[in-house]
Amino acid sequence: MTRVERRRNYFHDSWSSLAISVLWCLTMCVQCSNAVTQAEVDLVAEFFIATKFANETPCTLTTICNTWPALIVCNTVGVTAMNFTDQSLTGTLPASLSMMPFLASFMAQSNSLSGTLPPEYSAWGTRLVSFYVGGNQLNGTLPSEYAAWRSLIGFSTIANNLTGTLPGCGSRFHQEH
């Protein structure tokens, strides 16, 4: 093999390796951006039904993060935030939403939601940083289980018919509901 042929083969092999590397990276990026699971899709679809969200687009793996960008925030792990403030929601908050594995922020203020706050939402634990459900028609007491929300920065249940305080938070959140 001549020197020119060796260079040509080396150049060809280098470009082939680069092309394979680029394709692999692109494949990984697509997989990362689509980290939402079917279970999360099903839970959001249940939320849509329970709260009578006015929506004609089916909630699927391809629509969940792209169709409602101001309402549902996704990152490389899954759905991390839901903001359904002022969306004319009625009905109740489904307990099943507690199974959202990466939810850090939940907002459903200024709607007409009724019923009680699901104690199951305590499963969001230390990853939950904000919870806003003010301006609805919720009733009952704040579930004592919500004491598991140790990373909570923002919280409001104002303008509902709720009683109680978050255990362990005392007056910090008492003023806001």
From TrEMBL:
It comes from the Eukaryota. SUPFAM superfamilies: L domain-like. Keywords: Leucine-rich repeat, Repeat, Signal. Residues 1-35 form the signal peptide. The keyword Repeat applies. The keyword Transmembrane helix does not apply. Gene3D superfamilies: Ribonuclease Inhibitor (3.80.10.10). This is GP46-like surface antigen, putative. It comes from Bodo saltans (Flagellated protozoan).
